[in-house]
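Q: Predict the assembly, please.
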Amino acid sequence: MFEEEKKKLEQRKKSIDQVDVSKDKLHAAIRSGFEKAKKEKLLKRTKLIKRSSWSIVVAAILLISFITSVTVSPAFANKVASIPGIERIIDLIQQDRGLIAAVENDFYQPLNLSQEKNGITVTLDGVIADRNGMVIFYSVQSKKKNLPLEIEYLKLIDEYYGSFPLHDTTFWGSGSPIIEKKVFSSMMTLETVEALEIEGDRKVFNSKLLWEIGLKNGDKVEQFQIPFKFTKTDLASKTIDLNKEVTIEGQRIIVEKVTINPIRAEVKLKMDPNNSKKIFSFDNLKFTNDIGDEWILNNTGTAFRNLDGTEWTITMQSPYFNQSDNLKLVFGKIEAIDKDDAFILIDTESKKFVKQPEKSLFSNLEIENNKVSFIMNMDGDYKLPVSSSFLDSEGKEFFIKHDFTNYLPGKKYVQGTLMKTAEKGLKLEFELPSETIKNPLRFDLNYYPTWIEEDVEVEVE
Amino acid sequence: MKWGEILNEKILVKKAIKGEEEAFLALIHSYEEALYRTAISYLKNEGDALEAIQEVTYRAYRSIKTVKEPAYFKTWLIRIMMNYCHDVIKKSNREVLEESILTMQGITEDLTFLEVEEALLTLSDYERELLHLKYFEDVKIKDIAVMWNTPEGTIKTRLHKALRALRAGFEEKGDVKRV
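A: Predicted assembly structure:
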């Protein structure tokens, strides 16, 4: 049967076998694919090292403070003893005084719902929910042969709006968390959960949700879906209007408002547009009270700033269950630079930085074959200091696209890569656009390791 | 392949899975031509095929830990290549035969070749993959069955279906539908 077809396929093979190939070119292709993979692996590995050394620190703190919290707070000891699977949760929230207090005050709702597929078990351990947001705790258990797994996405779906998730974190390849242990636990924090359903003409809260996780095992993504129900608390959040102005090294900042929910707090700041400095981050912001408790930034470090950088919303650990009658907001070191220095300029003809900040991190500018590259000396702190796009002197903007860039319609892209250098730096390389551009090229700074600091406190309560 | 070589390869694959770079590179190099020919059979020109080699090296290194059965390493690689080629063809949706290396080397003047290429385009990805493994890489049905965790009988049936589809493709000559 099908002898003729088989013969034709054989012939085709023979024809293709005649195609010559240059070994040099083949080897070059293999080399560059290999280099690319190695670079990525290197990036991932450093990330992991960072994470695991951090968890050692956490584990150490845990050992000490676990014992102390048990002796100090009998309420907590009882909780720990009575809730199944709570140890995993405590591990995760140990450094968050706000969430620990929420567990002590009965905010943790254990769920223990599991789904098993091909030797991988995903468990929705439980949630901590207040009126606005929720923290979801989950675990992944798998056999050693399935490791490593990559988390591709995390979603929360409302049963009535299935196609439009309430929450969607999709990792585009490079940033996805890697699971290398047989038992892995983590949490996701949602500042707001607008799970509403229409009942007659009014909206009521809907407590039925679907939680989804995508785990990549090799080339295949396995999807797990766990429906669950939870209860929202009636405890009201506290909103404190402050409108207090502070000045830090001449920069005027207004603390507009502090909102305190049981699981998260939010601080709204306004910058004076006439400030001489551009502010990059408030990473040392914290709440304190007179008995020495501290609530720092939410560990996922969520901060939203509006486009011109004048309005900031910063999420913090929650002092909702503050046991003292006073509360202060302390600024600490603020990452900032003079607005006149908040960008670099590159001239592709003279092949020079025409402008860069004093004590510059930038070096080794090279322009060859239409490719521009330079090195940023990061000293191991790999926050990208420049924007992911550049402007030519006529204001045309080009975005540097990486392998996993999500393209936006109407934007211009050039191919680029970001790699780590052996000297704890980052090397940015990108192609010049094919259309004509006018020198110099401008990159705005996103972060820069220069700080301002002044002892400034704001009374909140 | 001789038994000794097969044994050797198994050891190499195990080393590569453990993260030994030299073992990985040795393996890729031993299959570079097979990979290249697979790429050419789909993409038809040198530039695209070399890019495919680069990408497949990258993908293979990234997922080396997922190789379950060292004995099927070559087919594992070829499948990564075929997946990649299917994607490229779908994305570009272009006339693959124009300006191709095959034209340059006079191969496409051969009418049978053109006919087969066009008929292959009418097949589904799955059918094409199956035909490729069987008649291009000479993988035994028994091995395909083990790799895909499918009974041998089923693979045989599907192979027949693919050949029948190919025959239908030949008969459609002159009125070729693109898939």
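Residues 45-72 of chain A have pLDDT under 50 and may be disordered. The helical segments of chain A are 3-17, 23-72, 74-82, 86-93, 97-104.
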